[in-house]
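Predicting holo structure, zinc ion bound.
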Amino acid sequence: MASFHLHIEGQVQGVGFRPFAYRLAKKLNVRGWVSNGTDGVHIALTGPEGNIRKFYHEATVHPPANARIMRHSFEEVQDADYPDFQIVESTSDTSPNLLLTPDLGLCDACRQEILDPLNRRHNYAFTTCTDCGPRYSIIQQLPYDREYTTMRPFEQCAPCQDEYNHPENRRYFSQTNSCPACGIELALLNNEGKLISKSQDVVIALTCTGLEHGKIVCLKGIGGYLLLADASNEDAIKLLRERKHRPAKPFAVLYPSIERIREDAHVSREEEEALCSIEAPIVLLKWKEHHRAAVCRRQISPGLNKIGVMLPYTPLLALLMDKWKKPILATSGNLSGSPIYFQDQDALTNLAPVADFFVTNNRNIVVPQDDSVIQFSPIARQRIVIRRSRGYAPTFLPHPMIGRTDTVLAMGGEMKSSFSLLRQGNVYVSQYLGDLENYHTQASYHTTLDHLLHLFNASPEKVIVDLHPAYFASAAGRKLARNFGAGVVTVQHHLAHFCAVLGENKLLNCPDPVLGVIWDGTGWGDDGGVWGGEFFTYSHHAFERIEHLPYYDHLLGDKFSREPRLCALSLCKDVPEAVTLLKDKFTEKEWSLYTRMI
Ligand SMILES: [Zn+2]
Ligand SMILES: [Zn+2]
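Done. Tokens:
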């Protein structure tokens, strides 16, 4: 007989770890308890030493599918006796140190249930289990327990409670468990906020009717509201572009199945895996030359040979697709330049001029997230994350900075912003938060940052900001540093990109020198000039800028960094052949104005 304590850190909450430990303990005839703490999962084990070691091996080598173990400790402790194995109440007496579990796409078992007329969750749009459902988007406080999420107001009915209590059930200890009798209510409203129906079947049927008639439907998803339109209806898409003030940027399309995607686009093995993964991102695919005429290619991605597609990742989208059966255009519910709306009243007020109907529900979203967007590089088939958000956020660098005990906050840049937090050796990278020149995006940046600092009870000792003094995030970082009494470190924009690549690729402690080539438009240089493209070396934790593009005239403020044609013009002004090539990128008026300026 022996007793051990196992402490596991990482992404171990909201992934079914406690029920998994319970079943494993029963199987191996080990007694003790398992509990969620704010620093991970704690397991006390007592029984024959061989069995405890088997438990340890299974729990750390074959944990639940969505768990990610970063560190663990396994120690023999003083003999303790327990009558059986139990899941005991969570504790919150330790300093928060957890990887937050991202939102998980609908699993196959839940998908089957909602489509099965004999199942009690038939057509229930908020079906979840320990393998799937919202996590990061609903968590208000650690540890991950229902009472600290926006599931709190929904009390489980007797059959749900039974599932929750039963170790053999898939929903044993599932914090998001609910059913049509006790769960979240769907509602269909018109764009004046007037209730049309609360019946699930009616809401879904009327949504289909609306789409059929070219209407634009605004639907509350996991990280915020989505705008939907019939992807085969040219007029509906034009209308959406007009109302959203989005003349040309491409839209994503939600498809009913991978087979249907194949009819319109080329899908590789990696792309299919990503589309069907639990993260369920938008994947950019190449259009097929002869795609099915039904989808309005020219209106969806004007002038591009690619289309962003995704598969239904929530029960609601799966139910909608089960009825509609055709591609639906799906885009973030925002106005051009503003962030995705995630609070009901905001969405209803601001998107009423865009949408004809709203499909909403009475569960709150804590932090906004768009759909993530990825693509694969054509030759190496490497995954490139274009927008890191739902399903991936908040991510962390895969190689924790072991031994670091300080808390550091990095505020990020101005465009396509996100921030990172180093805490207890883990690096958390926020979701994509949009361009910070927009007031609403700034508010959304603050909401997300405050939330993460609050979750981890974190007080940064150091705040890293971009060298550019006028960036919103730099100013906000300086202010935060004053409030926390933290030091401020400035970093040049291109150097920050190089550091990020080094971190992501585990090269921070690389013994050999590393060459970094950073081409990223313009950035404020530490010599006061405008930098345009750098060659850095990194060796023994020191950087050197060894080469760079020649300095060139910078005009028209930030318009310059947003329009590569202006950079090209400025760079090539003394090369007549290049200037000729550039001419048709401008109108005549622009051309005469800009050429006079340079
Ligand atoms: Zn599930
Ligand atoms: Zn229930």
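The two ends are 83 Å apart (CA to CA).
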